[in-house]
Amino acid sequence: MIEIIERKEGVRNQKRYISGWKVQVSYNDWGHIAVRVIHNDTPMEDTLVVFDKKTSERIIHFCQNKISHVDRLPVDDFEDIPF
After folding, report:
1. Residue 33: how many other CB atoms lie within 10 Å
2. pLDDT tens digits, residue range 5-47?
3. Residue 6 CA, distance from chain mean position
4. Residue 76 above 80 pLDDT?
5. What is the DSSP-derived secondary structure letter of residue 66?
6. Which residues, 6+ apart, have CB-to-CB distance to 5 below 8 Å?
């Protein structure tokens, strides 16, 4: 599940949840990280969260420098799903 929280001082937080059957993370030719949430067992219904290049670089830098030493949890081995 992905939780998106929009915050503004003095206003109640707005929350949006994106959940699904499976999640894929990718890095494209343009330097963007994309998170794909597949909503059911067919790839015909999904949601993409795409970070621009600058944000993607900041995420990568954070992972390399702040959490690279953290023990990794096992990841389920899913079949490749074509886009």
Report:
1. 19
2. 999 999 999 999 998 889 999 999 999 999 999 988 777 899 9
3. 17
4. no
5. I
6. 13, 14, 15
Please give the helix or strand (H or E) that residue 57 lies within, else none: helix 53-62
Would you say how long the chain is, in residues? 83
Nearest Cα residue to 58 out of 31, 30, 25, 36: 31
User: d(Cα 60, Cα 52) in Å, to the nearest integer?
Assistant: 12
Kind and range of the H or E run holding 6: strand 2-8
Residue found by looking up tokens 């702040």 in the block: 66
Strand 11-18 versus strand 2-8 pairing type: antiparallel
Spatial strand order of the sheet with 46-50 comes to 22-27, 33-38, 46-50
Task: For residues 38 and 46, give the distance between their C-alpha atoms in angstroms, rounded to a whole number.
Answer: 4
